[in-house]
Amino acid sequence: MLTISVILFATTIAIAVIRIILGPSMPDRVIALDMIGVNLIASIAVISILLKTKAFLEVILILGILSFIGTIAFSKFTERGVIVERKRDR
């Protein structure tokens, strides 16, 4: 059952990559990237269960944080066109 779930997670990641390439708009691509992050975290968790190790738990935490920050950055870029706004004194 765990092996089948890893295969299904890999399939959904492949579908999300297709959505990133063919996505009609930037928000669709952002959602696909977020979906890849969530499915990657879940598949690493299942692989950790399959291998009966806790070594991947830190990887899951780091990947979750990076996925969240990436989603926020892409959302700000989609909304405003820039990620970090700088005020210039003239």
Automatic annotation (TrEMBL):
Keywords: Antiport, Cell membrane, Ion transport, Membrane, Transmembrane, Transmembrane helix, Transport
Ranges annotated as spanning the membrane: 6-23, 30-50, 56-78
Membrane-topology annotation of the record: Multi-pass membrane protein
Cellular compartment(s): Cell membrane
NCBIfam families reported for this sequence: PRK12600.1
Family: Belongs to the CPA3 antiporters (TC 2.A.63) subunit F family.
Protein name: Na(+)/H(+) antiporter subunit F1
Organism: Sporosarcina soli
